[in-house]
Description:
Layout: E1 3-4, E2 6-15, E3 22-28, H1 31-45, E4 54-56, E5 60-65, E6 71-76, E7 83-84, E8 95-106, E9 112-119, H2 135-149, E10 154-157, E11 168-171, E12 174-177, E13 182-183
Antiparallel strand pairs: 1-11, 2-3, 2-4, 2-5, 4-7, 5-6, 8-9, 8-12, 8-13, 10-11
Helix pairs in contact: 1-2
Amino acid sequence: MATHATLARVVVRLDGFSGGPGYSVFHGPDGAILQNALSGFYNSLKVYLAKNVVVTFPGTGYNLTASTGVATAVWSAAAPAPVTSLGSSTYAAPAGCVVCWRTAGLTAKGHLIKGRTFIVPGDGQMFQNDGTLDNSFKSALAGYAATLITSGLYVYSRPTTKGGSDGQANDVIGATITDKAAVLTSRR
């Protein structure tokens, strides 16, 4: 199990759908490398994203101290070109699927540290007639996730108390895609 003292944060923005914008937060060792890997990930997924969805990458973000979550620097790099979806069928705005990122890290209470990324909104071709994920999509997504992991993807577990120092950045060691639709609700 590898934990890291510092990490870079990349916040990806998704626009062009009812209920948007949406944001997905990713962490890794280097913001520039990670945002380029995320561009590849979303370019691979664009046929499965609902029509009119545009994914943009920041070109800048924070480097953090893992234990405290305190920003220590700003990383900056040319932002990859936006990714425009190729989906064309009907869709439900908050529905899609979820990738569960596995680590070998444990919290202070002994719980496994895991992360999740919601892929929403998903185009209708993401699903079978019974509402579960299409088998070919599920297989493709597992491959896209495996490729993203090789870029140095982390799951960040924030400190458990305000001002605490028990935060952790753990390597992602695998991904699981559950064979069911996921609905993303807002925290706004």
